[in-house]
Amino acid sequence: MPPIIHRDFDQHSPEWYAIKAGKFSASKAAIIMGGLDASGLQSLIKDLAWERVYGPTEGGFKSAAMQRGNEVEPEGRDWYAFARDVVVEQVGFVQHAEFPMVGWSPDGLFNKARHGIEAKCPLHKAWMETKRTGKVPAEYRWQCRWGQWVGELDGLDFIAYHPQAGGLIVPCEVTESERQQMAERVALLEPKVQEWVEILTDKKEAA
Fold it and tell me: Which pLDDT tens digit goes with each residue over 96-106?
């Protein structure tokens, strides 16, 4: 069974926030795949449970970095489409075929949704580091793997785009072992989210 691709709404729309709420998403992949005792992971588990009961916690505040990304990302996507001579499709959300509470918000899909892009619009120093190393920055590596896993992609390109310097393209890969690691981590964390859902819905008394 293929992943479910939601094309009937735009990202950052009320519908997008609603369908994304309570799901293990690619934007949080670095936290999800980090240390099990990390405070950020425990906070995320609570957020996911809260969203499943009460709805999205996102949708209001946007940091300066988020606002910059929203403004510059379309330019980066157009640059990539021209550079690679492809038609990039924008979709709302992609849900994993086997794990309904797992998803990804692609920055673009092409080649019959078998390839994707993960676009970032870093400030100049971070852009320079990506150019120097030729690698996906560490904080985005699991996000890129997550997108390939969820979307069952044949390939994904990481894009670092700066309006003055232009774009950088870094091809990404995900191994079968990494796919298994992500599936196992979700299977481990889902019961922890459900425990909080039960507490919030009074099905289980808090300790």
Answer: 999 999 999 99
